[in-house]
From TrEMBL:
Residues 32-133 form the Thiamine pyrophosphate enzyme N-terminal TPP-binding domain. It comes from Paenibacillus herberti. The gene is iolD. NCBIfam families: myo_inos_iolD (TIGR04377). HAMAP family: IolD. Its EC number is 3.7.1.22. It is an enzyme of class 3 (hydrolase). This is 3D-(3,5/4)-trihydroxycyclohexane-1,2-dione hydrolase. It holds the Pfam family TPP_enzyme_N. Belongs to the TPP enzyme family. Pathway: Polyol metabolism; myo-inositol degradation into acetyl-CoA; acetyl-CoA from myo-inositol: step 3/7. Binds 1 Mg(2+) ion per subunit. Binds 1 thiamine pyrophosphate per subunit.
Length: 637
């Protein structure tokens, strides 16, 4: 037997993390980049001590909020195509409770992150230790059990030697493209400092091979037969296309056979928006062109998509009677959806294999693709040119606010800027290789429809969980992954207020991010949702007890942190601020006051939401009826 080495559990953990490598397409690199920490009594004396003694190549970051730093870790692995991760170390109790939301975000998006929350004492000697729940039905239940449903692998370390088998399971999951996601290893706070004679072999360099899963001959033959039978197949490009790095194969496949492409939020910018066959966003927040193409299609080829309700317009986006589905996905769970023919395989490999088998085939879309694309380009131009007027203004979201109410907003916020024009002006001004980051509110809808990503992999919107607060933390994670790119967080005022603490971390460590804050003084998209379904405007506008609209000086908040800040009420000011922000070496925030109801809306999508079945309001009763009638045409599972 090889020798042993005496280490604490935490020292062994850090030593092991330093020895994990990943191998993809012949390239090998270290898998764990670093570790975010907020120290408390549950981790500072264990993991804190181990890092202080010898962190190896791991970069150590001090987070400001556990959820925020975990979101940065998620964004990092998303940007690195799941081929490099960050670990997240928290204290016990509230520190670990704070990462439940982030673990759920990582879970829904299938992004690998290693969570290392502290836990109660294994010996139970001091029970109840500070922050212990003392659950009556079981002393073994701690806050960390709340992480079980949002972890792909979960374990609790109560003895130092358990760490070895636990970490092997953890890294097997973290490096599997079909099952990866958040992995949680809770470490009891006494165990964290306890020593053990570890087998030295445990710390040898380990290489995890992320081999590309190839389709079987049976799958390929069935898929080509299905495509050949189809006259109008349509590709939905999901996140899997980006994780697989299948841009070239997808473009070649689409061009060779004239197959239009539509994009999900996660798949957007897998192929640049300017590509002739790319019809843009699909579904509820999609373009009219993509949604029309989906209705006209007789075969949907879903590549690396999990078919969320936003993508399928709650299963109304297709002519289900006459449309077949072909799913290419590394995950069997997703490949099985919508009764599809399943090709359980890596996107890049599957596309290149299929390409060679379809000689002579061509779809009937022909000129229709260019026609649909031009149609949307025209609509984009209209959106960019919208100008507010004090009289007779017809906002994109219609019939909710009167002209007087819109004027009241214009006065209170001192602005006449429509959201869509501001966003498109930003799109025009930013360097094409800038990366934009978003997650929640009305902005992801505008972005999926109207943002032109003229370079691949420049669009980073977390919409698997659409978690408010991801936008700024996520921008930090993206910057850490791509330090040479200019990174822009596109965030609503509601999301900003919910969580922006990692802006301080970005300032602290000099990782420049730019925050583009769209302030419409409210939870705008939810206000649209309630009013669009027959309700009133109820607790979604930011008004005080006197019903006055709140006007918060967010630029001042950012200045307080040390960021360079700008106040913007016109397109000219916006362009100037963007130009100046680009010259800065420190993080910036542009406080853009925009009018409510001026985000994009419509374009053929539909969302099945829980409208009240009985109500005193006629408009709500109508909304319920219209939902029921829409559901008649929806696929029921
Ligand atoms: C953590 C979290 N809580 C609640 C929601 C539900 N939600 C979605 S969007 C939204 C309001 C967003 O407001 P804001 O960021 O100002 O964007 P706007 O819609 O006004 O553009 C809320 C409350 C969410 N997505 N995430
Ligand atoms: O409830 C929601 C509605 C969506 O419009 C929004 O983008 C998303 O953040 C959400 O949670
Ligand atoms: Mg808002």
């Amino acid at each position: 037997m090889a020798g042993t080495i005496r280490l604490t559990t935490s020292q062994a953990l850090i030593k092991f993390l330093n020895q994990q490598y990943i191998h993809v397409d012949g390239e090998e690199s270290a898998f764990v980049e670093g570790i975010f920490t907020v120290f408390g009594h549950g981790n500072v004396l264990g993991i804190g001590q181990a890092l202080e003694q010898d962190s190896g190549h791991l970069k150590v970051f001090q987070g400001k909020n556990e959820q925020g730093m975990a979101h940065a870790a998620i964004a990092f692995s998303k940007e690195k195509r799941r081929r490099k991760i960050m670990a997240v170390s928290t204290s016990a109790g509230p520190g670990s409770a704070n990462v439940v939301t982030a673990a759920a975000t990582a879970f829904a998006n299938q992004l690998p992150v290693l969570f290392l929350p502290g836990d109660t004492f294994a010996t139970r000697q001091p029970d109840p230790v500070l922050q212990q729940l003392e659950q009556e039905y079981s002393i073994a239940v701690t806050t960390n059990d709340a992480l079980k449903p949002v972890s792909r692998y979960w374990d609790r370390i109560t003895r130092p030697e358990q760490l070895m088998s636990s970490l092997l399971r953890a890294f097997e999951v973290l490096t599997d493209p079909a099952r990866c996601g958040p992995v949680t290893i809770c470490i009891c706070q006494d165990t964290a400092g306890e020593a053990f004679d570890y087998d030295e072999a445990f710390f040898s360099k380990r290489v995890h091979y992320m081999d590309r899963l190839a389709p079987s001959e049976r799958e390929l033959l069935a898929a080509t037969e299905l495509i050949r039978r189809s006259r109008r197949p349509l590709i939905i490009a999901g996140g899997g296309v980006r994780y697989s790095g299948a841009r070239e194969e997808l473009m070649a496949f689409s061009s060779a056979y004239d197959i239009p492409i539509v994009e999900t939020q996660a798949g957007k910018s897998a192929v640049e928006s300017t590509f002739a066959n790319n019809l843009g966003g699909m579904g509820l927040t999609g373009t009219s062109s993509a949604n029309k193409a989906a209705q006209e299609a007789d075969l949907i080829i879903g590549i690396g998509t999990r078919y969320s309700d936003f993508t399928t317009s709650s299963k109304t986006a297709f002519d289900f009677e006459n449309t077949a589905f072909l799913n290419i996905n590394v995950s069997r769970l997703h490949a099985y959806k919508l009764d599809a023919l399943q090709v359980v395989a890596d996107a890049k490999t599957a596309l290149s294999r299929l390409h060679g088998m379809l000689e002579g085939y061509r779809t009937e879309f022909g000129e229709r693709i260019g026609q649909l694309k031009r149609e949307w380009d025209g609509e984009r131009e209209r959106l960019a040119g919208i100008v507010f007027a004090r009289e007779g203004f017809d906002p994109e979201v219609k019939g909710h606010f009167t002209q007087e109410q819109l004027n009241e907003y214009a006065d209170a916020l001192g602005t006449e800027l429509p959201q869509s024009s501001a966003l498109l002006a930003i799109n025009e001004a930013l360097a094409p290789d800038s990366i934009i980051v978003g997650a929640a509110g009305s902005l992801p809808g505008d972005l999926q429809r109207a943002w032109s990503a003229s370079e691949p992999d420049t669009y980073h919107v977390e919409y698997g969980y659409s978690c408010m607060g991801y936008e700024i933390s996520g921008a930090l994670g993206v910057k850490l992954a791509k330090p040479d790119c200019e990174v822009y967080s596109i965030v609503g005022d509601g999301s900003f207020l919910m969580l922006h603490s990692e802006l301080i971390t970005a300032l602290q460590y000099n990782h420049k991010i730019n925050v583009l804050l769209f302030d419409n003084s409210g939870f705008g998209c939810i206000n649209n949702l309630q009013m669009g379904n027959g309700g009133g405007s109820y607790f979604c506008e930011f008004r005080n007890d006197e019903k006055q609209i709140m006007n918060i000086d967010y630029a001042k908040v950012a200045e307080g942190y040390g960021a360079k800040a700008y106040r913007v009420n016109t397109l000219d000011q916006l362009r100037e601020a963007l130009a100046d922000a680009k010259q800065q070496s420190r993080s910036t925030l542009i406080d853009i006051k925009v009018l409510p109801k001026t985000m994009t809306d419509g374009y053929g999508g539909w969302w099945n939401v829980g409208v009240a079945e009985v109500s005193e309001s006629e408009s709500i009763r109508q909304a319920h009826e219209s939902r029921m009638s829409k559901l008649q045409g929806a696929k029921s599972y």
